[in-house]
Design brief:
By secondary structure, the protein is of the alpha+beta class. The chain contains four helices and four strands.
């Protein structure tokens, strides 16, 4: 289970990583629990309004699918299917979502980043997921 405090720290760290590594370009960061329900969110000053829903959708999708959204996108493309085939309108294959797991590999939640290029969003999300245990 992800606590609110851990979720809040992940959001703060995501904003800090964007500031340090991407010239302070503004992003939105969302974290959710294993069911995809939002725990913490922040929109940096100047981040696109569309990035609010996108970041939350990326976090949700990672948690619900149990894989990063980049991996989910690869599956969609490989199998030539649409995300809508999963009968869940909240799913997205846009890169920038990473699954949060415990040491045993159980899904605890997801983190979603939006506002940069898809590969940059994914890099931040993956970095947060890899360092999750330190929060």
């Amino acid at each position: 289970m992800i606590s609110y405090e851990q979720a809040r720290r992940l959001v703060a760290e995501g904003l800090a990583r964007a500031s340090a590594n991407y010239a302070g370009r503004p992003i939105c960061v969302a974290t959710c629990d294993a069911h995809g329900f939002l725990l913490a969110f922040a929109r940096a000053d100047g981040a696109p309004v569309r990035s609010i829903a996108i970041s939350q959708g990326k976090a949700y999708s990672a948690a619900r699918m149990g894989v990063g959204t980049d991996v989910f996108l690869e599956r969609l493309q490989r199998e030539n299917i649409q995300a809508s085939s999963f009968c869940d309108p909240g799913l997205t294959g846009l890169p920038g979502g990473a699954v949060l797991k415990d040491a045993a590999g159980a899904v605890l939640g997801g983190v979603g980043i939006s506002g940069l290029a898809p590969s940059e969003d994914q890099a931040i999300a993956d970095g947060l997921a890899q360092s999750y245990g330190t929060f």
